[in-house]
Recover the amino acids of this structure.
């Protein structure tokens, strides 16, 4: 038997109603059915949840099992349907592949969506890491005719892209009270220009420890990363910098070594599959994967842009969106996120208490003069 190959195709669909997220951008009917069976334990209920008939799902499942040469579901009269080891492994691998590529898939989707905006639509070019909050912002911006293309970058790279004019704004996540000699200060300092740059608040997010359901290892805090198998985010990613800050503040050494995943969604899928005991990441990723979560810190989600760009049409459109009720309602649906402060424009000194005093005074003086 020859193994099947994946073939990707595009579909043009009506956008979802305001405030609702897009459905999964890339999923094969087989994996959608296995996902529903795993969650519901019944082919009848799984078919209903997918809007399909029982007979259709039964026939398709047997066709796929024949094509793959192995059973994917175990049936027993009067008991829940359960995935076979082969079926579970297949579903876990598909989830992980999709999570690892979620940022790239989202960027492709947004780039293609932008093709259908008017040629004179305002554009605000962003640099930063893919994130569910940012994805929701792009969706709402498109609904008002504003394009927000995102160039993949870690925080320090995003700042340099702004300084060099390769983008209009950098996507950052910062908590208040960062130390002058901490990891975030060292990583970001070279790209910051107090007085010449401003911060726009998008909202807030909760970060902490993502854990298997029920917290079987009785994790209580950051020190458990040193005693249990853990996963980590890439070096100099926003999550890695925040974790390093928290551990230094608690008198702990830098984050321990561990298997690395490119994004929080992939960390969560590895935990769901039982491949590690814990990982540090955002609550929204943990809850989406059905994990437990131990909150440790709240961060401000921000855009940093040149002061002069705030008066341009794209920034004005974005500020109006952030201050509106639709954005607050959208974030209220995302676990661990809130629109508190969204739409406010801040001087860098509001977040950067570690910056040299003279520069912060100049920043405040310019704000008063304006």
């Amino acid at each position: 038997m020859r193994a099947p190959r994946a073939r990707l195709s595009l579909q043009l669909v009506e956008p979802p109603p305001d405030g609702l997220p897009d459905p999964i951008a890339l999923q094969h009917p087989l994996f959608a059915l296995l996902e529903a069976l795993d969650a519901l334990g019944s082919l009848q209920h799984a078919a209903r949840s997918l809007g399909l008939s029982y007979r259709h799902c039964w026939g398709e499942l047997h066709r796929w099992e024949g094509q793959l040469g192995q059973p994917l579901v175990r049936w027993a009269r009067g008991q829940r349907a359960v995935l076979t080891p082969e079926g579970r492994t297949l579903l876990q691998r598909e989830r992980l592949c999709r999570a690892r590529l979620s940022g790239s898939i989202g960027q492709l989707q947004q780039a293609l969506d932008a093709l259908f905006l008017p040629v004179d639509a305002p554009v605000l070019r962003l640099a930063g890491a893919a994130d569910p909050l940012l994805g929701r912002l792009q969706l709402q911006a498109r609904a008002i005719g504003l394009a927000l293309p995102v160039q993949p970058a870690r925080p320090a790279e995003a700042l340099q892209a702004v300084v060099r004019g390769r983008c209009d704004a950098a996507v950052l996540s910062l908590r208040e009270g960062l130390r002058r000699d901490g990891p975030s200060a060292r990583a970001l300092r070279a790209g910051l220009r107090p007085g010449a740059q401003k911060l726009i608040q998008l909202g807030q997010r909760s970060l902490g420890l993502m854990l298997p359901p029920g917290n079987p290892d009785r994790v209580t805090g950051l020190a458990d990363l040193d005693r249990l198998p853990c996963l980590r985010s890439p070096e100099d990613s926003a999550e890695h910098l925040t974790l390093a800050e928290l551990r230094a503040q608690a008198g702990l050494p830098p984050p321990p070594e561990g298997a690395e995943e490119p994004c929080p969604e992939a960390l969560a899928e590895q935990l769901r599959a039982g491949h590690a005991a814990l990982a540090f990441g955002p609550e929204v990723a943990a809850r989406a994967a059905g994990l437990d979560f131990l909150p440790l810190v709240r961060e401000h989600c921000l855009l940093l842009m040149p002061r002069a760009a705030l008066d341009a049409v794209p920034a004005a459109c974005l500020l109006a969106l952030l201050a509106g009720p639709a954005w607050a309602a959208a974030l209220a649906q995302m676990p661990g996120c809130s629109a508190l402060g969204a739409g406010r424009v801040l001087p860098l000194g509001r977040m950067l208490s570690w910056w040299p005093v003279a520069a912060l005074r100049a920043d405040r003086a310019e704000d008063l003069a304006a």
